[in-house]
Amino acid sequence: MTGSLKQMVVVLAIAIAIFRFGKPIALLFSTESDFSRRRNVWFVLTVTAFLSPSFWLFALVAIPVLAWAGRRDTNPVALYLILLHVIPPIPVEIPVVGINELFSLDNYRLLSFCVLIPAAWRLRKSKDTARIRGLHAMDFSLLAFGALHLLIYVPPDLPSHVILTDSATNVIRRAFLFLVDVYVLYFVVSRSCCSRRALLESMSAFCLASALMASLAVFETSRRWLLYSGISEQWGIRPAYGPQYVEFFVRGSFLRAQASAGHALSLGYLLAIAFGFWLYIQSYVKSKRWRILVAILLCLGLLATQARGPVIGTIGIYIAYAALGPRAMPRLFKAVGVVALVIGAASLTPFGATIIDSIPYLGNSPDEESVDYRLRLAERSWELIQMHPFLGDQLAMSKMEDLRQGQGIIDIVNTYAGVTLFSGLIGLVLFLAVILIGLFKVYRVSNEIMRRDQSYALLGVSLMACIFGTLFILGSSSFVFGYAKMFYVLAGLAAAYAYVGKLSERR
Fold this sequence. Notes:
- The chain has 18 helices and four strands.
- The chain is mainly α.
- The protein has one domain.
- Helix 4 runs parallel beside helix 8 (196-223) and helix 10 (264-281) packs antiparallel against helix 11.
- The N and C termini lie far apart (59 Å).
């Protein structure tokens, strides 16, 4: 408990500073009451998590607080995004008599039950039927992807190698969790953000939460201390990280920060998307100093994760934002020059040299095994995909035993390979269709309004750049934690952006 109290004090001290300095920027897009409520809920949940001896005591406080905040907030999506990683996603099984397993609860699902589902219900009851808008291509693609996963069953990878069979109750469970975890999230984001202000408020809320995690990440790396590791230990749950697992989170001489994101890779991805949002959000900030400081903070947090895919993805987001906007060629040359200048300047410092050494094939990387593993995974995945190309092989895990790592898992660190292995090319097409249809809609609307409303067009450019970055980063990561949430958030924001753009054309 003493260790958790020390961690809590550090987290609260950093959070107080970030909320204090971030408030003027946040108030450009949200009301004073909404900002204060979101901030206060964040502090209440953080303190409760660090002080609670069990998850259920935390949930006892969190459920009414989240339900109250969700009901009063004018933009539930902004509330959701600022609280998405208030604590790490630590799954806890619901104890039920007579059933081996109902399903697990974590912060993601608490937010879905207490904030998103009530928001979806209010939307359905709203007299403004235009906000519901029926089902469209993105909805059908997403629902078809969910239906495919009801029809095919992928047994869990158990250490005992026992292959569990499917059942009617398991199908119902999967259907329920798909609605709770995926469709409700996409539905609420795509329908709630029905104005330019709502889109900006949601993006700025995510930037504020990410700036806070970036600050915590810099502290974790500089002090070699994972600030949220004590929560799962205190709750009696075997952590996926913690002091006894530090060796798995060291690259070179750096501890890979993860803050409350659940993993360093997840944190890196979240900060990459926040950087993409900030490229546009900063246009509303008058102070050039604050625009630069926030960008530097997000980049420092990203470097603290030592996550290669997100780092390269962030560079791609920056270049895509320049290339897709107005005056593309001058902006693109400037972006490439800035990237080259930053990399060159960093390489001249001991800190920069250490970072470069940690990247395989650049310098003296100590982490070549990770790259070799990914290459072997790609080769084996392609062999299995060729054998079952259309609907995949649901028992593929049992044929990949030589890829089992020292942690006892087969880590499929490629989302596309994972989707195609278990649901085939049909599943991959449905999975990508959701985000690619959104990308096309944003591109069309942004191009149409570029001349008469350049500001709104650039908001679309920011979304497109983040989607491109996501598609790249997913090639080197598993579809878990923040990846799985922000993928559907971006799809929802893309649908909302296209809707708002079409409304402006009619006026």
